[in-house]
Amino acid sequence: MSINLNAKLDELQRSDRQLETTVALCEIRSQLQELTKSVESCQSEVSEVKRDMVAIKQELDTVQHVKEEIEELREYVDRLEEQTHRRKLRLLEQVTYLNLVFFFFILKFH
Q1: 49-72 residue pLDDT tens
Q2: 1 SS3 class
Q3: DSSP secondary structure string for all residues of 9-63
Q4: How far is 50 from 82, CA to CA, in rounded Å?
Q5: End-to-end alpha-carbon separation of the chain, Å?
Q6: Which of 3, 25, 90, 98 minimizes the number of CB atoms within 10 Å of its CB?
Q7: 38-50 burial by CB neighbour count: b if 16+ within 10 A, else e?
Q8: What's the whole-number mean pLDDT along residues 3-28?
Q9: What is the dihedral of CA 87, 91, 96, 102, to 10 degrees?
């Protein structure tokens, strides 16, 4: 009888250990599922950040391009201002020359 009870006790202990193992495995599976969801969420966020970074880089490239165009326009305006200044000086010289010619003409025939 004691052998029979010992056998039953051993069987109960094995069954208890199997149950503990099953519960532990269920807990581990549950934690793995949570971790998997967390990793998937992180991957999704990383993908969003990457998309945002690509969009920002494109915007920066556009801004840089516009900045370069503005610089080119400034240089063009500077050249135009310089040309205009030279033309004004030339016109002023011509007007001065014509005034002198006119003045001498008046002096000569007056």
Answers
A1: 999 999 999 999 999 999 999 999
A2: coil
A3: HHHHHHHHHHHHHHHHHHHHHHHHHHHHHHHHHHHHHHHHHHHHHHHHHHHHHHH
A4: 48
A5: 159
A6: 3
A7: eeeeeeeeeeeee
A8: 80
A9: 160
